[in-house]
Amino acid sequence: MAGGRDAAGLAVAGLSLIAVCYGLARFAYGLFVPVLREELGLDGSTVGAIAATSYVGYCVAIVAATLLTARYGARPVAVAAGVAATLGTAVIAVAGSAAVLAAGVVIAGSSTGLASPPLADAVARSVAPGRRDRVQTVVNAGTGLGVMVSGPVALLTQGSWRTAWWAFAVVAAVVTAWVAVAVPGRATAVTGAGAPQRPGLALPPGSARLMAAATSMGLASAPVWTFGRDIAISTGDLGERASTWLWIVLGAAGLLAAFTGHLIARTGLPSAWAGGMLALSATTTAFAVAGQQAVLFGAAAVFGAVYIALTGVLLVWGTLVHPAAPAVGVGVAFLMIAVGQGIGAPLTGAVSDLTTPRTTFLLAAVVAAAGAAVVPSRLPPRAPDARPRRQERQGKRSG
After folding, report:
1. Average pLDDT of 185-206?
2. What is the DSSP letter of 258?
3. CB contact at 8 A, 334 and 116
4. Distance (Å, rounded) from C-alpha 174 to C-alpha 152?
5. Which terminus has fewer CB within 10 Å in the chain: N or C?
6. Which tens digits make up the pLDDT trace of 109-131?
7. Compositional bias of type Basic and acidic residues: which residue ranges (predicted)?
8. Domain 4-184+204-377 - what CATH class?
């Protein structure tokens, strides 16, 4: 079992890999949609269809990562995630057509599917039960860090979006080398109740609710990730620079999701999930109807924090539904997020072309509100925290 220093090193390396894969390789695509539309001649349907290829790559990769992690351990699969992020961002950097862009997006998108299961498995097998949920949600908050970093890079490379994507590729390569050292391979599983084991074929009780909840979140969040900056420019009267700062605010607020583990411990999973989905509904509505810059920036901040917090809730929810195989639980939850986003992205583009972008955002808000009702039930008990026992021992020694 990892000590405090080893757990911290794993948390920081894992957070960095998530930042690269999610924040740069996957979600930065939405940041560059306006310039990609102009330079490559893309309409809304094409933009949405290309975004959907990212989710298709994610779905295939997360299934593969779930199986490969169980067979080969966390390290090689986590390294493969970094390699995919590096290659995908490099392909996007050289894209001269919609087809090449789509190829880069699907490779980059697959990195996210490869990243989450091995990192969740490494934490579950290496970190003491009392700190496990908190470390999981710290790692998961890397998405916010990556989104926050992509904004300044876009500002510094205005007029040269290819330079930005080359920078992403270099960062991804460096993080991949770090992960190869910091993430354990076949870590010895922690002992006691709930220790990870090999995955079985049957889905345990609670899986249906987990899958439905994750799908609703994917559907509801797709418009903001794909067209959030675009709608801020077209209907919110934000310029190129202001809309980029909007993206930076979204990512920075996402770092608050590192405290999701504390929130779950205090309120419980059902309350954290329902409250988060209602907040997602409200902020998506604000994107649709906001006429003032201050409201848009507030909506972006809330969306960033809430979205990444909700993925943290699903991550913990998945490990509790699948205590014998945490990589499977996380894989199932994140796969269904991607399924929802894979349906939602092209649907958003198509409906926007037929009606207005605001209409699609309002529909997504309705989906988020409905998803708030799909709360977890009959979860197995959480592993006890080791700290009270440690304090008890200290009390006995001092008595």
Report:
1. 54
2. G
3. yes
4. 19
5. C
6. 899 889 988 998 888 888 877 77
7. 384-399
8. mainly alpha
Structure tokens at 321: 């539904």
- Residue 371 confidence (pLDDT) above 90: yes
The predicted pLDDT at position 217 comes to: 95
CA dist., res. 165 & res. 90, Å (int) = 7
Within 8 A by CB and 6+ apart from 361, the residues are 223, 224, 231, 284, 285, 287, 288
Dihedral sign, CA of 107, 149, 115, 76? positive
Distant-in-sequence, close-in-space partners of 379: CB < 8 Å, separation ≥ 6: 206, 269, 317, 320, 321
DSSP secondary-structure letter at 236? Answer: S
Please spell the DSSP secondary structure of 246-305, one letter per residue: HHHHHHHHHGGGGGHHHHHHHH-HHHHHHHHHHHHHHHHHHHHH--SHHHHHHHHHHHHH
* CA 155 vs CA 29, 240, 283: distances in Å: 15, 9, 25
What single-letter DSSP state applies at residue 21? I
Q: Over the stretch 44-59, which tens digit does the pLDDT of each residue have? A: 778 878 877 777 888 8
Position 358 scores a pLDDT of: 85
pLDDT of residue 186: 63
Q: How far apart are CA 77 and CA 81, in angstroms?
A: 6
Q: Which two tokens stand for residue 166?
A: 């080359």
Cα 379 to Cα 148, 327, 350: the distances in Å are: 34, 17, 39
Contacts with 399 (C-beta within 8 Å, 6 or more apart), sequence order? none
Query: What single letter denotes the amino acid at residue 232?
Result: A
Extract the tokens encoding 353: 């072309």
| pLDDT for residue 387 | 41
User: What length does the chain have?
Assistant: 399
Tokens of 334: 């994140």
Global confidence as pTM = 0.74
